[in-house]
């Protein structure tokens, strides 16, 4: 089980989502992807997509206008 | 100082604050409010809601500030347009509304304490932003409106043109997404 960090600060939608989707393809089941974002719409479309795929998702506010979307790949 | 922190904590954990100011409102709430306010806009200004039109006036005013003149430009040549430019910013309802849009967005983000000045990541981002802005601005004038004036207000006015605009907006978005994935990933 490994943790993968994905820095998407300064990236506007839909780039964080597409980057996360590509990264998830390379990962194994049980791995955790942590996406750093500062674009509020990624806080919605990224968790929406991941939950729709059936992964476990948590969003944490790490600073003013900064979030971490934590996705556990379950399948 | 500690009491200030306590007060802040009380506010930020208050459910009313969280619901109204911190969390994003549901899409449905936004849709209903937009519909109501576009009716107010039409009723008070006798023009449907638009965004890029007033920005074009801002461009003309800025150009005039530097000593330029748009009197001979076809777009600004009509009498009504000349009058709008002469009467100035505060007499142009659309301009005031656009200023409110920017101010409102700033207030919302400050209330939610989510304000951040974002770093520019690469030169590619700058080129794409400038190029995208120019294309959108040019397209909006050629099409007599943007996704608000031409699409939203077009459809709201029961005009076929709004639907036609919408179809090509989708086609453009598909091409744009392909280009984005190709050059930005």
Structural features, described:
The complex is a heterodimer of chains A (75) and B (185). Helices cover 31% and strands 35% of the residues of chain A. Chain A has 75 residues and is of the alpha+beta class. Chain A has a four-stranded mixed beta sheet with strand order 1-2-4-3, with helices on one face. In chain A, a hairpin with a 2-residue loop joins strand 3 and strand 4 (66-72). Chain B has 185 residues and is mostly helical. Chain B is 73% helix and 0% strand. In chain B, helix 8 (147-156) packs antiparallel against helix 9. Chain B starts with a helix and ends with a helix. Chains A and B meet through helix 1 of A and helix 9 of B.
Summarize the structure.
The complex is a heterodimer of chains A (75) and B (185). Chain A has helices at 15-26, 42-52, and strands at residues 3-7, 32-37, 56-63, 66-72. Chain A is of the alpha+beta class.
Shape of chain B: globular
What does the largest sheet of chain A look like?
Answer: 4 strands, mixed
Tell me, briefly, the overall form of chain A: globular
Supply the helix-strand structural class of chain B.
Answer: mainly alpha
| Beta strand % of chain A | 25-35%
Instruction: Please bin the fraction of helical residues of chain A.
Output: 25-40%
What's the quaternary structure here?
heterodimer
Structure summary, number of beta strands of chain A: 4
* Radius of gyration of chain A, whole Å: 11 Å
SSE ordering of chain B: HHHHHHHHH
Sheet bearing the most strands of chain B, described? none
Q: What is the number of strand segments of chain B?
A: 0
Unreliable stretches of chain A, pLDDT < 50, 5 or more residues? none
Averaged pLDDT of chain B = 93
Chain pair sharing the greatest interface = A-B, 16 and 16 residues
How far apart the termini of chain B lie comes to 46 Å
Order of helical and strand elements of chain A:
EHEHEE
Binned, the helix content of chain B reads over 70%
